[in-house]
Amino acid sequence: MKLRLSVIGTGYLGVTHAACMSSLGFEVVGVDNDESKIAKLKSGTLPFYEPGLEIFLRDQLATGRLTFSTQYSALSEADVHFLCVGTPQMESSLAADMRFVESAIKELANFVKAGALIVGKSTVPVGTAQKLQTLLASSACEAEIAWNPEFLREGFAIEDTLRPTRLVVGVTSDRAEQILREVYAQLLEIGTPWIRADLPTSELVKVAANSFLATKISFINAMAEVCEAAGGDVTVLANAIGYDPRIGHKFLQAGIGFGGGCLPKDIRAFMARAHELGANQALEFLREIDAINLRARQRVIDVVRNFLGEELKGRHISILGAAFKPESDDVRDSPALDIAAQLHAAGAVVKVHDPKAIANAQARFPNLEFSNAVADCLLESDCVLHLTEWREYRELDPGELLKLVRNPLIIDGRNCLDSKLWQEAGWKLHALGRTNP
Ligand code: UDX
């Protein structure tokens, strides 16, 4: 008989995983204690934006294989439980907040059947899986723990789940590996690399991968700082070094740096955990990665001041982009919004546009002004900041926009506008890390 699955936590990761597993033919129940979220999901409405996922969710609901519930009792028949709850940064420290993982496990323990496999997908401090296994044993729950980190990127959620770059499974028995091979059989058939690891290594793989990606971005942003000082161009530099296959072109886009719900909090939680383990020296460099990243935001504000003068009070600043990256409405630790909020705090009149993230941005920063149209956002502007590289911003007509602003100045915080096009239309364009864009 086909395995029955459950997914605990129906955030970004959980909904995607549940719908994708259903598309592989499994019966899946998604459980979350957020009633409004579950009500939306049941009716086929996605509580966030992800390209293609809402229609995919509806298709899966229509098969009857995918269901949602607020009750943990709904998962008592499942053979495999995927733990997909959030592990955000704590307010008081760099460490990850493990409350959601701990409460989910306690609830689960009341309902799982003997022999069930609990598979963690959340990003957790190394050692968590072992701790949860001990916790389960002490509550006389005969379930086994495995860890299967998730590498999906927002904007590519379905693609990354159904055609992942690799599958990593942390297990303590052949039986657990066999069950996971059964779950992912169709992905194995298409040649997905399979890596069996122990529990701590599987937990570390995820934070190591995100630390590497963060390092790559901060590396190129550090080069941008040097290019600015030396009169160079970081985009040419990135292109040139990227041809070395050991370096590669990906993740070398210089600009205002990384944000989102993963990279920033993952490197911080990794440092905090290494400290607990007495390995803090090994990750000291991540402190610098974080500092370079935050400095990139500050550098944009310095550029604005260079052009408009120290006093920003009353100056009109238009911000294109609020999401932490395009094709997402996620504003968690968004560099764009951080910059907007800092300029607002300095007295500027800040107006923000985004194709998808305005509602989320407004909820987080109710004091900022928002526009649904680029033209409205740019009206009477003294300075335009391009901070999230949505395709629609690359397709704007700089000639048309020139008529709206007070001062035709644009700062490209993502290094992806066509500088010649803007300059020829009469704009002054400044790009991070480029002396003569
Ligand atoms: C990341 C990892 O890529 C993914 O594997 C993991 O599962 C979750 O964290 P995500 O947060 O969706 O995914 O976004 P990602 O595409 O990695 O971008 C992260 C941030 O880095 C964004 O703010 C993006 O704008 C920035 N970035 C990315 C750059 O500044 N320059 C680049 O070259 C690439």
Task: Produce a short descriptive summary.
The chain contains 18 helices and 14 strands.
What does this structure look like?
This protein is α/β, with parallel strands linked by helices and 437 residues long. The protein folds into two domains: 4-196, Rossmann fold; 198-437, NAD(P)-binding Rossmann-like Domain (Rossmann fold, 3-Layer(aba) Sandwich), CATH 3.40.50.720. 44% of the residues lie in helices and 14% in strands. The protein has 18 helices and 14 strands. The chain has helices at 12-23, 35-42, 53-63, 99-109, 128-138, 157-162, 174-183, 185-189, 199-230, 234-242, 263-276, 284-308, 335-345, 358-364, 374-378, 391-394, 398-402, 419-424; strands at 4-8, 27-31, 66-69, 80-83, 117-120, 144-147, 167-170, 194-197, 316-320, 349-353, 369-371, 383-386, 409-412, 428-431. It has a six-stranded parallel β-sheet with strand order 3-2-1-4-5-6, sandwiched between helices. Strand 5, helix 5 and strand 6 form a beta-alpha-beta unit. Helix 9 (199-230) crosses helix 10 (234-242). It is globular and about 70 Å long. The relative contact order is 0.09. The model has no long low-confidence stretch (mean pLDDT 97). Uridine-5'-diphosphate-xylopyranose (UDX) binds at residues 150-154, 210, 213, 217, 251-253, 255, 257-260, 262-263, 324-325.
